[in-house]
Backbone:
């Protein structure tokens, strides 16, 4: 009976100690370096939220915001000159 308990305990300990943890840590660290995080609060809320997106998505959103702002300014100036 003692041999069985020792065998299961040993098997359990070896099963829990794996080398894939270091590989996952390195992968996680490289993914974190590719993320842009910002902390902001929504309008009307005092709670702050952390939002992390990858660099390609962040660049796309910034360019899209610039384009929309440019279009809004162009549309507002054409409306003011039409009237």
Residues:
């Amino acid at each position: 009976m003692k041999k069985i308990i020792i065998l299961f305990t040993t098997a359990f300990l070896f099963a829990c100690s794996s080398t894939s943890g270091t590989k996952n840590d390195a992968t996680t660290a490289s993914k974190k370096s590719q993320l842009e995080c910002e902390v902001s609060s929504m309008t009307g809320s005092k709670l702050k939220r952390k939002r992390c997106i990858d660099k390609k998505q962040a660049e796309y959103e910034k360019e899209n915001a610039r384009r929309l702002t440019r279009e809004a300014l162009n549309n507002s100036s054409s409306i003011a000159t039409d009237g």
Q: What stands out?
A: The radius of gyration is 27 Å. The helical segments are 2-16, 20-33, 55-82. The chain has three helices and two strands. Residues 53-83 form one domain.
